[in-house]
Each structure stands twice: as C-alpha cells, then as structure tokens.
Design a protein that fits this description.
nine-stranded mixed β-sheet, 431 residues, six-stranded parallel β-sheet, Rossmann fold, alpha/beta, Dihydrodipicolinate Reductase, domain 2, 2 domains, 29% helix, Gfo/Idh/MocA_oxidoreduct, 12 helices, NAD(P)-bd_dom_sf
C-alpha cells in the first residue's frame, strides 16, 4: 500500500505502554500504518526523550498541538482521519478521546477507555455520529489461551463444551512487596489499583464471551497493607447470570433439563505463592465438558524483551521451545461421544457418563489482530465520503473491540466497587 493510503498515527504519551504495547505493532505493519508523531510534554519523566529515540519525527509538546488547537505550536497536526493512540494517565482518557473524535480523528485508547460507563457511552455516541472508530486496547481478548477457550464454545468445534455453567478466570502473581509506580500510588477514583488494571481485562473477556450479568458480588481490598487502604491490590468478583431459558438439546448428557445460570469468578491476587507456570488462568465447566489452563500468554513478556510480530514473525505469540506443559497445554475433559445420550429422562437413575481427558495445544496469541482489524476498518471508512453515514456505520460495526461493549464492562467495574463498599449483591443495569 502506498504512503498515500497508509493511516497516520500519533502516539499520545511516551511511557511504558506506548513503547511496549503500541509502537511494536505499528512498526510491524508499515503497509497500513505510518507513525506521524508522538506527543510528549517537554521535560516529561514518564519515559525517555522521544526525540532521541525517533530523530526527525514530529514530537508534539501538547495534546492540543496534536489536534491543531495549540496556536503557539507550528508543527503539523495529526491529519483528520488519522489514528490517535492514547496512552496517558487513566483519568485523562475520556477527555482526550472526546477531543480526538470531535476534531475528526479515530481513537484507540489504552484500557480503561474511561472511568465512567456513561462517558464510554458518550464516546460511542460521538464516534457513531461522526462515522469514526473509537476502540479500547483490550489486547487480552487475543491471548492464545482465551482464543483457545473461545473456540471451545463454537458449536462447529468437535470439542464443543456445550452451555457454560461455571467460568473461573485468574490473574494471580506473587509480589509480596509493593513495587510502587502509578498503579500502586494512584487512588481508584483516578484510575489506580488492580481492579482498573487487571480487572478491566478479566471483565472484558467475560463480557465478550457471555454478555452482561444479571447481578454481581465483589470483594476489593488492599491485601498487602503497604499502600494507602484506598488503593486495591486484589479482588474477587462473582458475576451471576440468569438460568438457562432453553432445555438442553440431545447433544448434552442431561438432555431435556434446564441447568442453573452461569456463574463467573474473576480474581486477581498479588499473594499467590506459586510459580508462574502453576498459576491457574482458566477453569471452565460446561454441559458437555471442562477446560483448565495454567500460566499466562507469552506475548507481554516477548514484547518486554524487545520482540514483535515484525522482528520475530515465526515465533511471536507462541511459547518458547522448552516451555513447560502447563504453559503450552490445557486440559480438556469431554463426555465420550457414544455416551452423550446417557440420560434420556432427567428422573432416570444412572451412573455418570464416561469422561475422556486430553491435553490440547494452546493457540498462538494474536495481539496484532487488534491492530490489523483497526487498519482494515479505518482504511475502508476513510475511503468513504463523510456524507455516507450508513456505509460508515456498516464498516465500523466490524470492529472487534466495540466501545458499546466496553461500556458494559466498565459498568461492571463500577458496580463491583459499589458491591465491595456496601458488602452486598448488586443488580446489573446500565443506569
């Protein structure tokens, strides 16, 4: 693709997020993205001097300069139809994303997209009205283990798990000493703490699979007691879904019955004293089987080591040779095919059906798919006249991370904090 049709990108902020999670993917896709500029305040201490790392690149001194609203700056702003990648402090996400949209730029924002669900809804509304993309960097939807898990709920898969009954998702680590940094020093109302950090990922994954819950119960606390009590470092979040409305079909062992609703347990701890490859990541029970996976996806560690899909196209997203079985493999247990009609009548006494256990390979992680999806959508939208609102909406609907869905996840996080404060189950609603 010629430079005429590449998408100009400005990275707003030049901290660890920008350098580790965004620049590697932009640089890995030169046929569709062109790094136009970086915004970094003069004297900023959030990262190294961007002008030294990117000589000759435009370095905007202010956010207003990125969008051509700083009269004192003569640098070329990000062209309209370009992509603003927002990687600054969480409390600023909403106002900068809104500014970008109102000035005609597409938006990819680090999670959380905003700290209030109503603000996410407002961004979604503005983006739709103006025919622009507004998305959040929910890259954990492209973890290899999550992609593997999602495939097990596809009815066309021969290892289809059936209707979900229990879903457990962990992001546990052993960090008995607080290391400091903004996540452990910023209060929750400004976007600090583990619920906004890892909770944003775990909730987004659950909502993308199962939708909004019916109610929820949360425990959010500071378990190490080394930071101010208002800054959380662990949580346990239970999501409750309504009972299944349909009876199970003939492919399920308990055909003809209606199981209780799905329950999800989402949890993060900094005091889980296990090795990384022994940490539970997912445990799923469904009407036809179960799936258990330990250890984390390798992509974050690969990025921190300087690897990217561009520099290591064959190995990126895959566990390294010599990785343990728990890192590479998940445990799948399903009902033996010939015994799936074992219970014709719910009242008929019988022994449980035979279960078959196997180890299955984890799919490669695909963070880059988030960026290729953005490129595809933005390129097609930018080729359309601004007056063709219907065609723009149809293309924008192909976003993999939609802000309307992100709003549901942010609302769950809001209600989780309410539940923890009040010590009770709260009903989910968007208002």
């Amino acid at each position: 693709m010629s430079s005429k049709f590449t998408i100009p990108v400005t990275i707003i902020g030049y901290g660890s997020s920008a350098r580790t999670f965004h620049l590697p993917f932009i640089n890995s896709l030169p046929s569709v993205f062109r790094l136009h500029s970086i915004q970094q305040r003069p004297g900023s201490k959030s990262g190294p001097d961007a002008s030294h790392a990117h000589p000759g690149l435009t370095i905007h001194p202010s956010i207003d300069a990125v969008f051509g609203q700083d009269a004192s700056c003569q640098l070329e702003p990000l062209p309209k139809g370009g992509l603003a990648v927002i990687t600054i402090a969480n409390k600023l996400h909403f106002q900068v994303a809104k500014q970008a949209l109102l000035t005609g730029r597409h938006v990819l924002c680090e999670k959380p997209l905003a700290l209030k669900s109503e603000d996410v809804t407002e961004l979604d509304k503005i983006a739709k009205e103006r025919g622009l993309l507004c998305s959040a960097f929910q890259n954990r939807r492209f973890d290899g283990d999550f992609l593997t898990l999602g495939s097990l709920f596809e009815t066309s898969n021969e290892t289809y798990l059936g209707e979900p009954l229990f879903f457990e998702s962990h992001f546990d680590r052993f960090r008995p000493l607080a290391k400091g940094g903004w996540r452990e020093e910023t209060p929750a109302e400004e976007g600090g703490g583990i619920l906004w950090d890892l909770g944003a990922h775990l909730v987004d994954q659950a909502v993308s699979l199962f939708g909004a819950p019916e109610s929820l119960l949360a425990i959010v606390r500071n378990s190490r007691c080394q930071q101010p009590a208002s800054i959380d470092d662990s949580f346990h979040l239970h999501l409750f879904y309504p009972s299944h409305s349909k009876t199970l079909d003939a492919s399920a062992p308990a055909a003809g019955t209606k199981p209780a609703g799905l329950q999800c347990l989402l949890s993060a701890s900094v005091l889980a004293a296990q090795t990384e490859d022994a940490q539970l990541r997912f445990k799923v029970h469904a009407t036809r089987g179960s799936y258990v996976k330990h250890a984390l996806d390798p992509q974050e560690n690969q990025l921190r080591a300087g690897q990217s899909p561009g520099s290591h196209p064959e190995s990126f997203g895959k566990h390294a040779p010599g990785a343990s079985d728990s890192e590479r493999l998940g445990t799948l247990t399903i009902v033996e095919e010939k015994q799936r009609d074992w219970l014709k009548q719910p009242s008929e006494p019988t022994k449980p059906p035979k279960l078959l256990e196997s180890k299955i390979e984890t799919r490669p992680g695909r963070y880059i798919d988030l960026y290729t999806n953005l490129a595809d959508v933005i390129t097609k939208v930018n080729l359309l006249p601004e007056t063709d609102a219907q065609a723009r909406r149809e293309i924008l609907d192909k976003q993999k991370i939609k802000s309307s869905q992100v709003a549901v996840a942010i609302r769950v996080l809001e209600l989780a904090r309410q539940s923890a404060k009040e010590g009770r189950v709260v009903t989910f609603s968007m208002v």
